[in-house]
Amino acid sequence: MEYVWKQKPRASIELVEQLGREINVNPILANMLINRGVEGYETAKNYFRPSLSHLHDPFLMKDMKEAIDRIEEAIMRNEKIMVYGDYDVDGTTAVALVYSFLQTFYSKVDFYIPDRYKEGYGISDKGVRLAAENDYKLVIALDCGIKAIDKVKMAKELGVDFIICDHHTPGDELPQAVAVLDAKRKDCNYPYKELSGAGVGFKLIQALAKRRDIDEATLYPYLDLLVVSIAADIVPITGENRILAYYGLDQINNTPRPGLKALMLSAKIEKEIGISDIVFKIGPRINASGRLEHAKASVELLISTDLNLAIERAKLVDEVNTTRRNFDENITKEAFEMIADREESVAWNSTVLFKEDWHKGVIGIVASRCIEKYYRPTIILTESNGKATGSARSVVDFDIYEAIAECAGLLDQFGGHKYAAGLTLSVDKVPDFQVMFEKVVKSRIEEAHRKPVIEVDDELLLDQINYKFYNILKQMAPFGPGNAEPVFRINQAYAENVIILKDKHLRFNIVQDGQVTKPVCLGFGLADRAKDPDHTIVKMLQGKMRFDIVAEMRENFFRDKSSLQLYVKDIKFD
Question: Which of 127, 197, 289, 340 has the fewest CB neighbours in a 10 Å radius?
Fold first, then answer.
């Protein structure tokens, strides 16, 4: 795939020099920090040393007082409380977080996760009726519910109150719940709008602790669950999320709960865990049970208090994850073949695929795989309970939620946000939806959306790669959306000592005229025989052809020695 390299803005010389003097950093670092909103000593201090004291007052969130009043009323009346959550990582970590906290001082509480296949996304008829039949008077819904108008109304008629804790974009009408906690409400003045579902759950228990005079420090052990939600749900790691992620990583690296410790052992994570480890190794394992079986197993793992039991549960989750990967690979292959067949006659701006026997649990992953290869807004649909149900994924800066909303007349329901959404429609309407969605995308998509972009922080000379520089880069973590890992461009270089690893990857020393430093470069997938059967790239590198690269700087440990390496994101030859 061809990438566009986009240089991030360069601040004025005056601003760069001023910040450099104030915090004693070089111009490259100063410019990078300004691009991340750091423009003076105080903001730099808060950026490099996040503080839990800077978390916002949870009662600034609209309806928080009403939510806490209702929970206190339930406890006073000895009512049963159900903690209800979505079946993905954000939902299951949110449920584990709120349920575990409530259990520390109240016993009449249980949790419920809907079955992905029998009940679908969000609050279900079955879940509401089960609550009513089993005398639950209060349901706390996490990571779902913002559009559950009819379900909440039905619950009220059956004598069940709801507190909605969601972070998805609300519709024009809000559910008639006791409280609707969602910073994206137009009438909510909460200062930070990008919390995950578990983040809203954390604000709820923070408010409850405040009301009950519980030391806030007792909440900090729950931050390991919260950072998993922040990483896996790919919310911006800015503002309050950055503080929560920073301390969540500290918690998960030093004193993780047994369930997360067991997952780390299962994933063979032996180094300090970071955001990318959660995204690629922990999150998929938690997600797996909800994708193929029932997400209740993930919650039970996350709330485990015994490590040996957690390890046994993690093994089962890992087995399911292996099965999930097999489904994923097979369906992705079929999807690619279907796209290739369509491409023969028409140049499409979007991808909408439907096959009735695809596994519902992996279609979101398949949508992401299709974007990796074809890079355009993508919806993958399968049949479930007599309906076509699907997952949508988008490309950078294209709002797929709004595009789907334009097709609402063909849909039974939909929900989500700018980059990911879910939808349900009648099977017989799929062809019409494919046509309409393509029309909408074609009218909205811009040239800038058609190729993936690698944003470059700055150009480096090889001699600028040293530990003094890298040690400051490390302190800019945790990295993620809104605080991306720094990417550097190195121009007019050539390679020495080119080695092919596992027929897929490349390892070589990068050399630049006039520079002494010759760091190791790792190019994952650069030598993939399937994509480059003639090893053209290898021959070009071995022939000392000049190239430019964009890369991330990483520290490598081997036999008790450390060195700085470059992880190549893309390469362009002269």
Answer: 340
